[in-house]
Amino acid sequence: MYRSTETRRRVLLGSSASLAAGLAGLSTLLAACSSSSGGATAGGSATAEPNVKLTYLHQWSQTQGHGPATDEMVRRFQAQFPAIQVEATYVANYYEKLAAVIAGGDLPDVVTYNLAFLPRLIRQGVVVPAETLAKGQYRFEKNDMVPVARDMVTFDGRIMDIPYVLNSSGLAYNVTLYKQRGLDPKKPPATWTELVDQARQLTFQQGDQQIWGTQFPKGTADPISPLLAFLWQNGGEVVDMKKLEPVWNSAPAVESLQFQVDLVQKYRVASVDQPGDPKAGQVGIWHIPPGNVAALGMQVKDAFEWSTAELPKGKQKATSVGGHSLAVLKTPHQEQAWRFVHFFIQPANLAVYLVATTTLPPWRAAEQHQTWQQYVRDEPRIKPFVEMLSYARPTPKLTRWQDIVDILARARDDAGAQKKTPQAALDDAAREAAPLIKEG
């Protein structure tokens, strides 16, 4: 049963905070970019219609770039469609509480959802397929989507959700250290061998401070993004989706984790216990998502030069991808909810949102928009992350993937700390996760 917005607000978590004062510049830019072009067909101006109130539940607090950017997007939408009021509600412990809300039948109109976890949401049968809502002037061009994003929102041949931000896993490196150690900062590691060679030259003692060449790879775009990237680069796979069985303990997968452990135990260019702080200039090469580019700029300031690069390849190039989508749920206001989602992904709107949140375009029209193109010129360190989307790979479509991620993260950490061999760690993870994978 669909209950009132006021009831949902009491049951849930309170309404979102007011717009931050610093959004004036973003508002001006959005106003200047109000025209639409490219992948999604532009919506028309508002016409006389009954007033409708929508609830958009999201996970973006005001301390994140997404929070203020979301509020500004809502404000802009309501200026264009005054009859549709959108209440954007921030939810702490988002996925746990959203699951409880859905189980209770008190559906919000629109939700954001992690692309990797979408199978769980789709299986609950509460999502209205985006393809059935996209009509007339509110259509979208599915072939404009970045292929990996289109794959992640497609279920049984239908596009269910609409991706609006992507993340990938890449490298950051300390240009100042490169110069000090006689390395060419224009040639970051392109292969695993070069990663080891350069990390060795970047590992040294500086007074009382240990400088590490690199770090033991952990999460960036998600908790296991480098683990998956190295596995795929070595020719391994994660899950056999036909048999619904884990295969991350195959020889190529074990070799990929062994390489990561060797960075610590064999080559001694990284430490698990005392990894060093890249922001303090204590690490030469480390893993980051694109969202860290803006943060690093503010944290490092002029302390040292740094840059970014694509992941070094093994047998082939590969990286993981993360991101978020917007889903319209089965409420009485699906048409108006879709109008909000459609407005969100218009290239002129989405490009500004992506710049504000330092995330990557899932739509080529947004990537080609002048706002995004200018951002890349101003901040070229974002470019490697965009380029990696051309060979990024999606995670398996499993309803228990979120739990499986936790299992794999523990296996990686056990191997890195030498509590288990890589083979034993991945074997144990496979046994633990097998029943979850069988759920499909």
Using brief descriptors, characterize the structure shown.
440 residues; D-Maltodextrin-Binding Protein, domain 2; 3-stranded antiparallel β-sheet; 6-stranded mixed β-sheet; alpha+beta
Radius of gyration: 23 Å
Tally of strands? 15
Low-confidence stretches: 1-46
Number of helices: 19
Shape verdict: globular
Give me the oligomer status: single chain
Mean pLDDT: 90
CATH C-level class of the largest domain is Alpha Beta
Q: Estimate the strand proportion.
A: 5-15%
Might you state the CATH topology name of the largest domain? D-Maltodextrin-Binding Protein, domain 2
CATH architecture call of the largest domain: 3-Layer(aba) Sandwich
Number of discrete domains: 2
Question: Could you give me the name of the CATH homologous superfamily of the largest domain?
Answer: Periplasmic binding protein-like II
N-C termini distance? 28 Å
Largest sheet: 6 strands, mixed
Structural class assignment: alpha+beta
The portion of residues assigned to helices is: 40-55%
Structural notes for this entry:
By secondary structure, the protein is an alpha+beta fold. It has 2 domains: 5-167 and 322-392, 3-Layer(aba) Sandwich (D-Maltodextrin-Binding Protein, domain 2), CATH 3.40.190; 170-320 and 395-438, 3-Layer(aba) Sandwich (D-Maltodextrin-Binding Protein, domain 2). Helix content is 42%, strand content 15%. It has 19 helices and 15 strands. The strands form 5 sheets. Strands 1, 2, 3, 6, 14 and 15 form a 6-stranded mixed β-sheet that branches. Strands 12-7-13 form a 3-stranded antiparallel β-sheet.
